[in-house]
Design goal:
Number of strands: 8
Distance between the termini: 20 Å
Radius of gyration: 16 Å
Helix content: under 10%
Strand content: 35-45%
Number of helices: 2
Largest sheet: 5 strands, antiparallel
Structural class: mainly beta
Number of domains: 1
């Protein structure tokens, strides 16, 4: 499945650089130790708001929270692969952090909700930037 290529900026650059190295990182607040994703300029935890944030490597393991099947996608590059799964993944380190995945290698509508997954850094259509996908293990 062709994937769109993100354009990293100052805020997301460390996240995408780590993906190109095969690692998954999320922001970590040095004031309250809360993890967060997607990246933000300040800690999103109620009452914190600190801008003292770093990126922390996480295990790249998670659990499938839920999923849906896309039959009519408005994104042209994805239309040729319809229908396809879109799963919501909770990372093991913090179930409040969720990623979305097409679950490469998983048949449409054959998604094991509650099943374990491992992050894979997958190449995009542009080829220079990898993105997060998850593989059922």
């Amino acid at each position: 499945m062709a994937k769109q290529t993100p354009i990293p900026d100052e805020l997301t650059g460390p996240f995408y650089k780590a993906l190109n190295e095969g690692k998954l990182v999320v922001q970590s607040c040095n004031a309250c130790n809360k993890l967060q994703h997607p990246p933000k300029p300040v800690c999103a935890k109620d009452g914190c708001g600190s801008s003292d944030l770093t990126y922390k490597e996480v295990s790249g393991r998670g659990t499938i929270y839920n999923y849906g099947v896309v039959y009519d996608c408005p994104i042209r590059v994805l239309q040729e692969d319809q229908p396809f799964n879109v799963a919501v993944i909770n990372i093991d380190e913090d179930s409040d952090i969720q990623f979305y995945s097409h679950l490469p290698g998983t048949k449409v509508d054959d998604v094991p909700v509650g099943g374990a997954v491992q992050m894979i850094a997958e190449a995009t259509a542009g080829g220079d930037q990898k993105i997060v996908e998850w593989k059922v293990i």
